[in-house]
Fold each of these.
Amino acid sequence: MTILVETHADYRLITLNRPERLNALTVEMAEALSAALDAAEADESCRALLITGAGRAFCAGQDLTAIVGIAPAGIGHLLDHYNPLIGKLRALPMPVVCAVNGVAAGAGANLALACDIVLAGEGASFVQAFARIGLIPDCGGTWFLPRLVGMARARALAMLAEPLPAATAAEWGMIWRAVPDEGLMAEAHALAARLASGPTAALALTKQALDESAVNDLDSQLDLERELQAEASATPDHAEGLRAFLDKRPAAFTGMRS
Ligand code: T3D
């Protein structure tokens, strides 16, 4: 199986599972991932997702053995499978944590950057490997990179295709944190569990607001915040959060939309 899905109390762990190819992406794997995202969304008890890779790498990007000799039009066709996956990940109405357990290259790096909170082991690195094979960063790379690290660093990362160590990625604000390799999965599980006990609807609306801020001017964003806040304030979790504050106890969020 190209991916493994493990169900935990309130969240799911998805493991990219082609370790012999450093979890390089294939269309089959993208379709499996996409189906796993749909299944997570359809399951009301699933309130967060954790994504990682099997073996020593997170994901080496497109499986290059699968594209040798295919016509340029064929390469565009691959993105017909990958682009919807990136869009789905961004729009998923729950937090997505990525545990980058080793190298994340090409589309693999950008798959990680599409997640909401990225943790990486200190031995991991991020490589926009595309220029090495005469391609441009895809799977959202040209959108994520300048927003996360600024244009100067984005240009150098994309054009030089040099590996960026996890610690530098964290220092630059490209990811949330770099942690010791041996503690990565424990910390990632704890984070996923914590997010899964949060106000899921409000977190989903937060994702939406942050992504739309990339194209909105301030007035439009203020309008959007008013609209989304109205939705958040109508959720049972908002009422529970207020009650818990007044009662001086931790909130017991259910994640219910209404
Ligand atoms: O085409 C399109 O438009 C579709 C979308 C494309 C988006 C992309 O992702 S393009 C970028 C594709 N990815 C790459 O260019 C990265 C290629 N891999 C590497 O540069 C290196 O493998 C790594 C830096 C990721 C890791 O290096 P290292 O030294 O730790 O491992 P390795 O020895 O190079 O790789 C181990 C094995 O995995 C090896 O196989 P072998 O010799 O043991 O049988 C290697 O060939 C295989 N492997 C690594 N990456 C890929 C791969 N096999 C297929 N596709 C890969 N991407």
Note: Residues 21-22, 24, 60-65, 67, 75, 78-79, 103, 105-107, 127, 129-130, 132-133, 135, 138 surround T3D (CB under 6 Å).
Amino acid sequence: MKIFLDTANLESIRKFNDMGLLDGITTNPSLMSKEGGNPKDAMEEITKIIKGDVSLEVVSTEYSGMMEEGKRLRQYGENVVVKVPMTPDGLKACKSLSFEGIPVNVTLIFSANQALLAAKSGAKYVSPFIGRLDDVGQNGMELIKEIKEIFDHYDYIKTQILVASVRHPLHVIDAAKIGADVVTLPPAVLDKMLQHPLTKIGLENFLADWDKLKSGNPDIEI
Ligand code: G3P
């Protein structure tokens, strides 16, 4: 399963990229707004740091605006995937951009029907928002299972399931068990995945024992 980071924060992107963990990045207007400044600078920098796919989202709501913005966004790099909302105009733009060889991520997916239609329009990725479904009392992970089952029946569907709106590490394990193609994670979730209290205690004990050995013979080194 590929891991993308769901952020426009350059510090987090560099931190996890240096550990070799990132296959790509997803952003959206809210994440851009959270960082402040000029989003163009962030887009330029992110597409330089990350070799894999970087989703940059349009803000137009009608077809021609989405097409213009999509083509402008694509100029940031060959790794740019244009993110469009799951609307009739979004699907029309998805079809046209995909036809022109520009990959598209259809976002704000909340049902298997929407995922199926986005795949038919040529989307490279569909982004079901599981956390937001959980928030309203629907099981987000069940939607991932349903989409996976449907896509697996049809060889012609090459669209990848990109699990979005992930809130905690258990979401990641469950998505991996189902066989989702990608999860996009907020930096805080990836941080939690790295940690275990027994790792911390184990390391403290190793170092304390090493200090004990060294106190008897200060010349010892590795
Ligand atoms: O990738 C979509 C994601 O950013 C939405 O997450 O936590 O705002 O539901 P959230």
Note: The first helix runs from residue 10 to 18.
